Description:
Blueprint: E1 2-3, E2 9-10, E3 21-23, E4 26-33, E5 40-45, H1 48-70, H2 75-86, H3 96-102, H4 115-119, H5 125-132, E6 135-137, E7 143-145, H6 146-158, H7 168-177, H8 179-182, E8 188-189, H9 193-199, E9 205-206, H10 221-229, H11 237-256, E10 264-265, E11 274-275, H12 285-308, H13 312-328, H14 336-348, H15 350-374, H16 378-409, H17 417-434, H18 441-457, H19 476-507, H20 514-554, H21 562-578, H22 589-598, H23 600-613, H24 631-655
Antiparallel strand pairs: 1-2, 3-4, 4-5, 6-7, 8-9, 10-11
Amino acid sequence: VMDNRFGGVEFDQRIYMNNVLDYDGYRLFQSSYDQDEHGTILSVNHDWWGTGITYAGYALMMVGMVLTLISRKSRFVTLIRKITDLKVKSVVILFITALISSSSVAQHNHNAPRAAEMKEVTIDLDHSEKFSRLLVQDQAGRIKPIHTMASEIVRKVTGKEEFNWETPTQVFIGMMYNPVQWRNVAMIKVYNPELEEKLGATDHYISFVDLFDENFNYKLGEEVEIAKRKKPAEQSKYDKEVLKVDERANICFMVYQGAMLRVFPKFKDPNHSWFTSTEYQQFDNHDSLFVKAIIPLYFSSVSQSVQEGNWAKADSVLKHISDYQMKFGGEVLPPQKKIDLEIRYNKMQLFKKLFRYYALVGFIMLVLLFIDIVVSVRWIRIVVNILTAIMFLMFLMHAAGLAIRWYVSDHAPWSNGYEAMIYIAFVTVLVGFIFARMTKIAVAATAILASLILMVAHLNFMDPEITPLVPVLKSYWLMIHVAVITGSYAFLGFGAILGLMNLILLIFTTTGNKVRISRAYQMLTYINEMTVTIGLFMAAIGTFLGGVWANESWGRYWGWDPKETWALVIVLFYAMLLHLRFIPKANGKFLFNTLSLFGFSTVIMTYFGVNYYLSGLHSYAKGDPVPIPTYVPITLGVAILITIIAYIRNKKMAAK
Length: 656
């Protein structure tokens, strides 16, 4: 920067994403760069007063929303009084049973065809534990324990957390040290029946050699090319599985070749790059000899240890590699405490377990609450309180899991699809405890909802891998903006669940229980309105903060990106929903509950639709839409059917 106005000011400044130059009221942002990456394109902003006034306006709206929640004359506090006056117990319907059945994901206990044969060459467990603590650099540049990489590889290739009674690290070492034998092990998962038949799969698994014919031609070569030429929307299930099997095969090949074992840091490398032993030319003479020789020596010692049963030599060679990392790894080496915690986090599989525990406890609570409504029994209330305490302990475990992931990844745990889902599940349970004093149904319902969210998080299209942040997300605004706006999804999701439950209540209303159901229906509707109010405020504040982040990072508040547009749709829709009470003939509870249910589709579109179907700054997709899952129209159809039946029943009971 050169400025001749004040005696020749001159200084150097690096400008890149989230690193802005502020000088004399001007702000310079990196907006793009040349294709050869040798030149950068900057944008300039000079609007000090406008920015201050805009931020003050945002702050004023946020303060107003908070005051609305605590003012004695506000609608929110009025709803609290109405709920208190009702003094009615929660009502629950056993329709949740159908939802629970979907979360019972059975693990298939698959034994490889050559299990007995592989038992003879199993890697020593203690040695594999030591190997798992070795550090490795992944393709994204993250330094992590080999235990993490091995777990990711085994999960992607086999679809399981362990394989053939061996830990992921044992499998990983075996594939590298004895690739000839492991190529014959049926460990590559195949989900498509047609492809299974073509490749001769046994119990949904094939070996690496099954992918090649007698002339060593790759059986899927032509089909992979055909599938890649198609747009995602045009790809059949067969095409998609062909591409997935091809990816699993390529991962196996890279492991066999040792291409994943980037365990050697280069001293004082400006990019902090780590290399495999086959890339020894990257090092100086002395270091290159060590890098070239140590891995073959290690696998030779492993072979000897397998035969003799004495792993001392293999442990010794492993220690030399670890010492090399400690000596030349430099500032990128994670502390030992972080390594230990990451390995423990991998082994716990906390969030995968929590979705089952949430479902179980939530379902039992709902059943007991229903029984308590029909026949009031004191011991049931005691059990419900105990289950609530158990839910709170699981909630604390959930919080601890998020905190560990935050510490291990060095960024807030809501930066990608998987992390956002486990965070939304956390806030969902928090919502239940916020409303627990009004009705225990809040804890039970949010437990079920959190279970379903975590189940979705662990489906095949969600990757739980911890990855480094892309440059655009390396900002403290990630913590603030994303936490607030995704947290709003939990409140709005709870509102949708309450809306659905109220529609079910209308269906089961009879002349005999009309008074009791009506009071419960009123209470749940009031809670629903409170929930939606908080969700709307959080969505609006999150949208404001997103505009501030955008202005601070690249000098504009709004760009009509698909995510920004749909975030605005959420705010507009739920604002309309909360103001229906001022419109005659549109202020009924039935319409409110119906719209709170179907209005959640705006949230689903904002999260899944934008992230996976549209292109933009916030998208995880390439811009080509993928086919909508078959369960989506089925779920929508069921919701519409429930609404129609509830409408008919409501009209019928109102006429009596």
